[in-house]
Amino acid sequence: MNINLLFLTTSEWLYVIVIAAYLATVLSIIAVVISENRNPVKSLAWVTAMLFLPIVGMVLYAFFGRNLRSKHLISKKKKLRLRNIEPFRLIEESNLHLTDASRQQIRLARSLTGATYFPGNKIDIFTDGTDKFDALKRDMIAATKYINIQYYIVEADKLGNEIKDILIRKSREGVKVRMLYDHVGSFPVKKKFIRELTDNGVEVYPFLRVTFPQFATRINWRNHRKILVIDGKIGYIGGMNIADRYIDGGTFSVWRDTHLRIIGPSVSAMQYTFAIDWNFTTGQLLEERTLHYDVDDNADAGVHLLTSGPNRQWSNIALLFLKAISNARERIFIQTPYFLPTESLLKALQAAALAKVDVRVMIPRRCDSAMLRRASYSYVSECLKAGIKFYLYDKGMLHAKTVIIDYEFSSTGSTNFDFRSFEHNFECNAFIYSTSFNNRMTEIFMNDLNDCTRINPTAWRHRPAIERYKESLVCLLSPIL
Fold first, then answer.
1. Active-site residue 389, yes or no?
2. Checking CA distances to 284, which of 81, 221, 327, 384 falls within 20 to 30 Å?
């Protein structure tokens, strides 16, 4: 190209303009990323992507990098009305027969979202899809007033059609049936499946429908919650979606997951969470009350429900995990399909292990995402150096999302131990305070260890260099995966 700009041809001028516009766009996006003053690790990941893969980086940022902090799912006025419909009785933490650590965590949850602590809940634990969905179908068939159901994934397979038929039957019987599903998570579901439900009186809506021109502003924000409330008496929460693979394993021999069935006052918090998402999606305000009643003597579990999402000021669930891990004195057991911790959570786990707390992390050997598996593996070496024990689940796909700390606290729900769940998804977890429930969760964890291989630090260091390189490369993008 002629260096003298005065003598450039038209095509050469066009080339200069395109290059200048391209560079200006890249630099502008980098400036926006920096100006948002978000997590430095995350900002650095975006800047790295822009500098080394500018075209890919710009596309990724358009779809996955936008900030939703100023978006409200419900107005303060409507939230107050919901609070008045469901009068949440304030429990004074000092009167609870719990450890100081548990009381601190309960206070933190209240500060973050106003979450109420509910004592006296009876909880059943399901670790396979057959038992969970058999119980779920029985409870739905017995419904007399309403069924509020929300899942990330709903598939029109055998299980999905069984659930659909029950919902249609209950709707015809006069039971009010409402369904929310995530539009991206349930992309494969056919319009015919949804139309059959709506034609029979079931109210069905997608959360954050992804359409043009809103595609780039919505694709990254997913509602990952799995909540179901029946008649205000029974609630389900956990990691299982509505799909056959949660029963038959799909491409895996086993699909290992964890889900809870709860009877007790904390069901009102699940109803409240569903009502907020329902209002955001439909504009309607649910004014149904849940039932507060005494349950049997075995209902000793105290529960508070905590939600998080990209619209919140704080990463609520990540902060609660951080507090609980920091409070740990003897043991921390984690099960997660993807292990991509934030920098603060990583350091908290390392500090606990170095302080001789028994820290164990269980992840699947074979994952449903090769990229996320490599990203998870990229954190293992640094954790092993601190004394954290890692176990690879060999039996099949480990999709459970559980955290067990010391002898009183445990949590499960929809939240994976990764950036996406902590930063981008709308999530919901039950945080449970009970020694007996903790014992049951610990027993399940220990039984799962029989189907695991513990990672040997020496052997891990001597893995093929190409594998370590791939993991390190993916690690650079882990904050934005």
1. no
2. 221
Has 190 been annotated as catalytic? Answer: no
Catalytic residue chosen out of the listed positions 139, 157, 257, 406: 406
Which residue among the candidates 170, 304, 399, 424 is catalytic per the annotation?
A: 399
**CATH fold label, 76-308:** Endonuclease; Chain A (3.30.870)
State yes or no: is 164 an active-site residue: no
Q: Which of 401, 418, 424, 448 is catalytic?
A: 401
To the query of whether residue 401 is one of the catalytic residues in this protein, the response is: yes
Distant-in-sequence, close-in-space partners of 352: CB < 8 Å, separation ≥ 6: 325, 326, 328, 332, 359
Extents of the domains making up the chain: 5-64, 76-308, 316-480
What is 316-480's CATH number? 3.30.870.10
Is 356 a catalytic site residue? no
What pLDDT does 62 receive?
57
In the chain, what percentage of residues exceed pLDDT 70? 77
Across 268-297, average pLDDT = 82
Residue (of 231, 265, 306) closest to 120 by Cα position: 265
Run of H or E including 230: strand 227-230
> Is there a common fold for 76-308 and 316-480?
yes
Annotated catalytic residue 76: no
| Number of C-beta neighbours around residue 455 at 10 A | 20
